[in-house]
Amino acid sequence: MRLFPFLTLLAFAETLSAQHESPALQNAFLRPHTSLNGDWQHFPDRYEAYFYDFVRVPFDSSKQGRGDFAAMDAVARDKTERYEYGFDGTPVLHVPGDWNTQYERYLLYEGSIWYRKKFPAPKRSAGERVILRFGAANYRADVYVNGQKAGVHTGGFTPFQFDVTGLLRGGDSSNSLVVRVDNQRSREAVPTDVTDWWNYGGLTRDVGLYVLPNTYVSDYQIQLADAKTLAGFVQLEGTNRARQTVKIDCRELGFGVSLTTDANGRASFRESVTAKRMWKPSDPYRYSFIVDAGPDRTTDRIGLRTIATQGTKLLLNGEPIFLRGISVHEEAPSRGGRANGWEDAAVTIGRAKELGCNFMRLAHYPHNEYMPRLADSLGILLWEEVPVYWTIAWGNPATYANAERQLTELITRDRNRAAVIIWSMANETPDIPERLTFLKRLAAHARAIDGTRLISAALFKAGKGAQQYEVADPFAEFADVVSFNEYIGWYEGTPAALPGAKFSFRQNKPVIISEFGGGARAGLHGDSLTRWSEEYQAWLYRETTKLVDRTPEVAGMTPWILADFRSPRRNLPGIQDGWNRKGLIGEHGERKLAFYTLQAYYHERATRKP
Ligand code: GCU
User: Fold this and answer.
1) What spacing in Å lies between the alpha carbon of 230 and ligand 1's midpoint?
2) Is the CB of 195 under 6 A from ligand 1?
3) For residue 380, what are the CA distances in angstroms to 29, 314, 340, 371, 569?
4) How far, in Å, from the CA of 607 to the mean position of ligand 1?
5) Is 428 touching ligand 1 by the criterion CB < 6 Å?
6) pLDDT of residue 334
7) pLDDT band at 170 (very low <50, low <70, confident <90, very high)
8) CB of residue 305 inside a 6 A radius of ligand 1
9) DSSP assignment of 88-145, as one string?
10) To 5 degrees, how large is the angle CA 257–CA 260–CA 263?
C-alpha cells in the first residue's frame, strides 16, 4: 500500500489539531507585555528541507523521529547524535523588519526563512495565561514553542495570536520560539502573485507576550452610533466568560455602564451621551475609557465622531468635509523596506500634513498599527484596505475565506480608531460576476462586524468616447462612497488630454478619486512635455486639480502617491531602477515640484467651504 497519501492526510489533520489560535486581543497596543523584538537567529530554507522530510511529508505531522525538523531547535547532546541544521551561531535578523532590506542577498528572496528566539517564560500567577502575539508576518507563519506547534497564520498584514500557556517551560529554563515565515506568492493567495509593490517577507511587525487572567477582555467596540448615542459591545474569552459583570466607564463624559455577558461572553450597550469635544482633524480629542471585567481591565483612548453621507456630501460630525488626501504604501521613508514603529509613522504622517492633507489612503493592505494610532492623535482621517488587488482567484472559496479573515483581523484591530472612516474592499478589480459576488459578500461582512464606517473600493472608470468617462462598476451600488482610479495624462495620453475630460456617475453618492498621478525622477528637469521630468508631473497635477474642481460629485481625492516605492514592475534604467516613481517625494526624501503644486491646491481648498 502506498503510504504517502495517508501520511499527507494525517499531516493535514494533525497540523489543524495543533492549533492554539487565540481570538483577537483588543487594545494589545496599550496592554502591558514582554517584547520579543530584537535580534533573532535565522537561516533561509529555499528548498523547504527543514519543513518536509525526504518524501515531502511535513515534519510537524509525524510523531516518529522529527529528524531535521528545525522547529525542534535541537542540538546534539553527545558526539554520537546527528543533526544537519542549527540556529546557534547563525546570523541574526532584526525583528520587526523585512528580511529583503537586511541582507543584500535577500532583496529578491522568496521562500521560507526559519527564525529562532530564546526567552524566559514571563512570570504569571496560577490560572493566568500567556498569549503570544504577532503584529503581522508576510506571508505565512508556522509558529512553534519548544518544538510544539502553536499554529499557522496566512495573510501578510494583520495581527494574530496563540495561547501558548501549555507550551511553555516554567522557571528560569529558556524557551525556544521558532517561526517559519514563507513569503512565496501564489495565484490563490490574497494578494495574488501579481502586485505593483515589493514582496517584503518576514516578521515585519512587533512580537510580544501578554500575561492575562484566565478570563480576559478579548474584544470591545466603543463608538458613536449617532451624535448623541454611544454604542458597542464587549467580548470576554476564557472559561468563566459567561454571565460576568463588565463595566465600561469614562469619567470625563459622565458615562458608565455595567453589563452582564451572555452565555458566549458577550454584552452590548447603547446609551445616550454628550461628547463636548467630537474628534476631528482640527481637534483630534480622545476620551479615556476603562473596560473593567474584574480580573482583567484595560484603558483605551477613543475619539468620538460620526461619519455619514448625504447625497454626494461626506459629513464628519454632521458637517460637509472635503478629503484632502494622499495614497501611501508601507515603504519606510528614506530607508526603504517595510515601515513599522513610531518614527516611520511620524515621518509619513508628518509629510502628509506638510502637504496639507486631512486624509490618507493606506494602500493596498492593512498598515502597521502605529499608523492608525498616530493618525488618531494627530487628526488624519484614514481609508484602510485589504489586499484584494487586481487578479484575485474570485471562484476559490479558500481565497474568499482568506480575504474575509484578513478583513476581520483589520476591523477588529482598528474598530476603536476614530481616524478610520472607510473600509476598502478592493483595488482595481475586473467587472465580472464572480468578482461582484465576492465583493458584495465581503462588504456585507464588514457591515455586519462594524456598522459605524463607510464601505468603498477603488474601481475602474470606463471610457464613453470623446473624453467622456463614467464609473459604471456595479459594485458602486453596494458601496457608500464611489471611488475610482484614473490616469489620464500618464497611461492615457499626456496632461493635454485633461482639460477636455468629463466624468459622470450613476449613483447619488460621494465620489473619491482614489488614484491619479504620474512618474517623475526626483531631480530630473525638462519642459513639461518631457516624460519623467518633475515639470511633466507638476503639469499633470495642475490639470487634474482643475478637473476635480469641475466635478462637483468629488468629495475627496488620494493622488497616487506620497513617496516613491519599490516595485518589481518598474525597471527603467536610470529612471525607475526598481522603484515606482509616482511619488511626490523621492526615495531619499526629495520633494518634487508636484508636491508643491498639490500643497498649494490643498492650502487653497482648506479655506473653501466644502
Ligand atoms: C494602479 C494600482 C497601483 C499602481 C498604480 C501605478 O492604479 O492601483 O497599485 O501602483 O496604478 O500604476 O503606479
Assistant:
1) 39
2) no
3) 19, 15, 18, 10, 31
4) 30
5) yes
6) 78
7) confident
8) no
9) TTPPEEEESS-STTTSGGGTT--SEEEEEEEEEPPP--TT-EEEEEES--BSEEEEEE
10) 150
Per-residue pLDDT of 447-501, as tens digits, reads: 999 999 999 999 999 999 999 999 999 999 999 999 999 999 999 999 999 999 9
For residue 596, how many other CB atoms are within 10 A of its CB? Answer: 15
Cell numbers at residue 38, please? Answer: 530584537
Residue 10: per-residue pLDDT: 45
The grid cell for 216 is 480576559
- Sequence-ordered strand ranges (E) for 354-500: 359-362, 381-385, 420-427, 454-460, 462-465, 468-471, 482-485
The residue to which cell 477588529 is assigned: 412
- Interhelix angle 593-606/341-355, rounded to 10 degrees, is 70
Q: What is the mean pLDDT of the chain?
A: 95
**Closest Cα partner for 206 from 140, 143, 154, 160?**
160
Mean pLDDT of 206-232: 98
Q: What values do phi and psi take at 181, rounded to 5?
A: -110, 130
Ligand 1 pocket check for 580: Cβ under 6 Å: yes
Quick one: 65 exposed, middle or buried, by C-beta within 10 A (0-12, 13-18, 19+)?
A: exposed
The string of DSSP codes covering 330-344 is: SBPTTT-SB--HHHH
Exposure string of 525-557, with b = 16+ CB inside 10 Å and e = fewer, is eeebeeebbbbbbbbbbbbbbebbeebebbbbb
484 ligand 1 Cβ < 6 A:
no
- Provide the 3-class DSSP secondary structure of residue 498: coil
Q: Euclidean distance between the first and final Cα of the chain, in Å?
A: 74
Residues 6+ apart with CB under 8 A from 397: none
Q: How many CA atoms lie within 13 A of 404 on its CB side?
A: 18
Amino acid, res. 414: D
Q: Which parts of 45-78 are beta strand (E)?
A: none
Grid cell 529558556 in the structure block, residue: 174
485 lines ligand 1 (CB under 6 A): yes
Residue 9 buriedness (CB in 10 A; 0-12 / 13-18 / 19+): exposed
Cβ atoms of 588 and 522 closer than 8 Å: yes
Q: Cβ distance 241 to 265 under 8 Å? A: yes
For cell 523521529, name the residue.
65
Amino acid, single-letter form, for residue 448: A
Cβ 98 vs Cβ 109: under 8 Å: no
Mean of the pLDDT values across residues 146-165?
97
For ligand 1, the distance from its centroid to the CA atom of residue 196, given in whole angstroms, is 7
Burial 73-83 (b: 16+ CB within 10 A, else e): bbeeeeeeeee
| DSSP H or E run through 290 | strand 286-292
Ligand 1 centroid – CA 317 distance (Å)? 32
Read off the pLDDT band of 1 (50, 70, 90): very low
pLDDT of 2 strictly over 50:
no
Residues 91, 88: Cα–Cα separation, whole Å: 9
Q: Which residues pair with 209 in a beta bridge?
A: 34, 132
The protein residue whose alpha carbon is closest to atom 12 in ligand 1 is 196
Nearest of 199, 209, 193 to residue 161 by alpha carbon: 209
